[in-house]
Design goal:
The chain is an alpha+beta fold. The protein is about 30% helix and about 45% strand. The protein is built from 2 helices and 3 strands; from the N terminus they run βββαα.
């Protein structure tokens, strides 16, 4: 009877004008090859986020969609929110 717990990237979605990246991380408990439970955690990344601790697949998506134009638009949007 071997019980293991693993973390998987369940879903990566790119959302909206500013290309926010939503990441769903699944925590899966497995016993003898059979899934016993699965829990989900979601977090959202914006183009000004430090992604160095993110999964390589998440980093690749972020780097692909966060062009300089997207980064500039996000920075402008945030600056205008303080006005």
């Amino acid at each position: 009877m071997a019980i293991t717990k693993e973390t998987q990237i369940g879903k990566i979605e790119v959302i909206g004008k500013y290309k926010s990246v939503q990441v769903r991380t699944d925590t899966v408990v497995i016993e003898d090859g059979e899934e016993l439970s699965r829990k989900y955690h979601r977090h959202v990344l914006h183009s000004d986020a430090d992604i160095t601790s993110e999964n390589a697949e998440v980093q690749a998506v972020c780097n692909a969609v966060w062009t300089q134009d997207v980064k500039d638009a996000w920075t402008t949007f945030k600056a205008n929110q303080g006005s």
